[in-house]
Write a structure and sequence with these properties.
This protein has about 350 residues and is mostly beta strands. The protein contains five helices and 16 strands. It has helices spanning about 10-15, 25-30, 55-70, 110, 175-180; strands at about 5, 70-75, 90-95, 105, 115-120, 120-130, 145-155, 160, 165-170, 190, 200, 205-210, 230-240, 290-300, 310-315, 325-330.
């Protein structure tokens, strides 16, 4: 029985203080995506690296995925009105020739949402099955999420799965995750069990069906043949906003061109992408100092103050002896009203932290 609920939204700091354990990160790391085989043969002449054309491979993969979705159904009835669904409740069954989909079940093709994206100059389609959207917070594509998951090939062999909740920085994973996970929200609540484990209630639950181009493509990964379409089932528990360079600007805001890729935004052209660059415009005043800083004190349990549209929380204290919590925020400022915020504007050098 869950006896005690904590509001997840009020536990952000607590989560960030918990020991974040990064299990199996390497297994899903993007470094593997580009790790194409490059074998030498006997005469020391390297074989040409024969990487498939992305567009051609996508056609093959999409045919395979659609073929799968059109011949498999799931137990949709078990998710209707289910207050606390789990990814383990999902049962996918192959539809045999001449068979019709049973009552309380739905053909996957009729249930998934078809999504499109452009990645590596290629048009991609992928599919998301929303089993439970979740009531909590929506992760950004650049955040760290805590979840359980299982990875399958289309033949339903499992190549990877988590036993306990794991934390992943979505920027370090295959592309499909950064696209599909933010379609869901975090759990309603969690309870700390006495034995150090945590139980989550009403998480976001779903499955994604990814072409190899949004997965490992030509890369080598344990249990995954090259050019494999992938199925991931998952339940999303918590999320934490990342600020990779610690400059006060959340990483998702440092995606200046809004393409959900952080590596291609480099305002000052110094070959360090904005999300890793603590002085984004290179004007000598650190980004952190080019932001307006505010502090709020609230009583423990009180609702958060309403932040401005360009205001972001950067820290939150534990309650002090009087039960007060201090929240620190930064606000992006465009002091000369030219449409470019000061920290990205080389021509504005106001240090808001200078005495
Ligand atoms: Ca970008
Ligand atoms: Ca830069
Ligand atoms: Ca930056
Ligand atoms: Ca500036």
């Amino acid at each position: 029985m869950i006896q005690k609920y904590y509001k997840i939204v009020s536990c952000t700091q607590k989560i960030s203080n918990m020991k974040f354990r990064y299990y199996l990160l390497a297994l899903l790391g993007v470094s593997l995506m580009f790790n194409a085989c490059n074998k030498s043969d006997d005469d020391d002449t390297p074989d040409p690296v024969d990487v498939a054309d992305r567009g051609e491979q996508q056609i093959i993969d999409n045919d395979s995925i659609v073929g799968y979705l059109e011949t498999h159904y799931y137990n949709s009835g078990d998710f209707v009105g289910n207050p606390n669904p789990s990814m383990n409740d999902l049962v996918i069954t192959e539809l045999m020739d001449g068979e019709t989909v049973p009552a309380d079940h739905t053909l996957l093709m009729d249930a998934v949402e078809t999504k499109t994206t452009v990645f590596s100059e290629t048009d991609y389609q992928y599919y998301v099955l929303n089993l439970n959207e979740g009531p909590g917070d929506t992760p950004n594509f650049s955040d760290t999420v805590r979840l359980n998951y299982s990875g399958n090939l289309l033949d339903e062999s499992v190549f990877d799965n988590s036993v306990n909740p794991v934390d992943f920085d979505l920027t370090s994973l295959i592309r499909g995750w950064a696209l599909a996970i933010p379609e869901f929200k975090t759990a309603e609540s969690f309870v700390e069990n006495g034995d150090g484990t945590v139980s989550y209630y009403n998480p976001g639950v779903g499955a994604m069906f990814l072409p190899s181009g949004l997965g490992y493509f030509s890369g080598v990964s344990p249990g995954i043949p090259i050019y494999s379409p992938l199925i991931f089932k998952f339940e999303l528990y918590q999320t934490r906003v990342n600020d990779h360079d610690g400059d006060g600007v959340p990483s998702y805001i440092e995606d200046v061109d809004g393409d959900l890729i952080l590596g291609n935004d480099d305002t000052n052209d110094n070959t360090v992408a904005d999300y890793n660059d603590p002085d984004d415009d290179g004007d000598g005043v650190p980004t952190f100092n080019e932001l307006e800083h505010k502090e709020y004190e609230i009583n423990n349990g009180d609702p958060d103050p309403t932040f401005g549209t360009k205001e972001f929380e950067i820290s939150r204290s534990e309650p002090d002896g009087d039960g007060k919590i201090t929240i620190k925020t930064v606000t992006l400022v465009d002091s000369d009203n030219n449409g470019v915020d000061d920290y990205l504007d080389e021509g504005v050098k106001i240090d808001y932290l200078e005495e």
